[in-house]
Design brief:
heterodimer; A: 95 residues; alpha+beta; 4 strands; 22% strand; globular; B: 551 residues; Sulfite Reductase Hemoprotein, domain 2; Sulfite Reductase Hemoprotein, domain 1; 4 domains; five-stranded antiparallel sheet
Chain lengths: 95, 551
Amino acid sequence: MKAITGNRLSDGAVVYLADDDLWTTQRAKAARFDDDDIAPVLEAAQLRVREITDAYIINVSADGAPAGRTVIRETIRGAGPTVRGDLGLQAECCA
Amino acid sequence: MYRYDEFDATLVGERVSQFRGQVERRLSGALSEDQFKPLRLMNGLYLQLHAYMLRVAVPYGTLSSRQMHKLAHIARKYDKGYGHFTTRQNIQYNWPALVDVPDILDDLAEVEMHAIQTSGNCIRNVTSDQYAGAGADEVEDPRIWCEVIRQWSTFHPEFTYLPRKFKIAVTASQNDRAAIRLHDIGLRIHKTDAGEVGFEVIVGGGLGRTPYIGHTIREFLPKKHLLSYLEAVLRVYNLEGRRDNLYKARIKILVNAGGAQKFTDMVEAEWAAIRKSEIDLPAEEVERIRAYFAPPDFEVLPAESAALEQKRKGDTAFARWLRVNTVAHKSPGYAIANISLKPVGGIPGDISDVQMEAVADLAAHYSQDEIRATHEQNLVLPHVRKDDLYAVWQALAAQGLATPNIRLVSDIIACPGLDYCALANTRSIPIAQRISERFADLEQQEDIGELKIKISGCINACGHHHVGHIGILGVDKKGEEFYQITLGGSGAEDASLGEIVGRGLSSGDAVGAVEKLVDYYRENRQDNERFIDTYRRLGADPFKEALYAAA
């Protein structure tokens, strides 16, 4: 499956397109699309230039975890630097 | 030391307000990202994995305590309480919000700092020897010429859109601490047998996917001709360098494609045409700049300090730090104190706001208000009285800044890697952390001696792996991190490019590989050989065998 990610324009935070069509920092809340349906979603997302920048498609598994070749990169993007567990979303989720 | 003149203050002020307007227009949607990206890059602002990243220039690595206090303030107020010193003597902030960046730039301007020319295809921040003005081994202070180059290159209209970025490093010592043979232009100030001082001009060095050691295109250039000669080199590159292929656009490709002699001939022809023009600085202007770098008023002191000797004998930890982290100063009774930003298990180059404040205070009290950043991602207090070294060491130790490992196996250069960088294929920092933990024993580190490990998370080679005595390059294989070992590189005066020794290793095996290589070296070294000397004497084969046999 696929999801849409990008960086929030105002602060660069990693965000995902959610089911409510808003941007969320929680990858678990990212809307998941079938591979065939994703292209127009990305196109629409890329038009939202006042909200985000650098939008692109990522592969996700059925439960929303990053999948495919960029799994390490997307895991780190979603959670924060592996060398600083006190920073990024990983610091918020389990506090 | 470096200071703005009225032109700089005006230029920087105008640039900040211009960028403030650009940010506002980007946020309002008046500018698209495609339009905005080159503008933000011209102001040192990148977009990385988690956030924006702001790269702040530290001209030739020199900072005052006031500037360091401001860097700490920015880390605290706008970022997440830390900064990261890079291999180009700059500092990067990893989490600034776009909306805050104009305010950050205003804050920087208050202390005569900025982020101009830290990105883009222009002449980047000039780097130098971190011991400039202090080292016992220098011909003269190279920063005078760095400043001449800085003024000449700032917003140079002809060289704002070069084929690719352009990096210049200057040193004035036979001991190369600025990696001059790995820069687009490296300048070495030296004195001839006749007593004349001038530049050796080295062109076309660089790392990345196509590494080259630079070629000396002129053994001796009189100092007064520096700018016209640089202008000739840049002009040839600007006209002849390739713009059709990003990977072939650096000057190293131009120099090596046609051969160094052909390139030299083109430069000399261009120089002959322009050298009589008024590009070179008048002598009085050079003297005005030289006055910025007038040496501090060093006290007349005995060469040795009785207080220091007493402390050295009574405190083995201090004695070790003294042995490893301090260096001879040109003025009797003084020493250069290196501050390691490589604690065991730490992130190379990272420093917290609290640590920055502490370093700034120490510089103000004990080092003539001066701090230096090094290309090996450490800091330096360049002018410390030997009498004060014990107090400095205690204060550094209290902040976790007294790791005695300069030039040793745990003094590792590592790029930010996939923990931060949008270009990286693999992580670098965790490998550095694991190696420094594996070699945490300080006595063992000292016994191993000088050993430069450099780690890059992709082929762009920001971690200088090609010139590590042991280099480690991260490569992605179908979503898994692997690490390729190179051996025999050096970024110093004995510059050489490392050789790839075999198949890539997993992250766990890479750390073990370093241990095997070090063990082999210790078993086979002669006399006072460093790792690199033993490698050069024995060649790659026995090291490869040690690495891969019976694995």
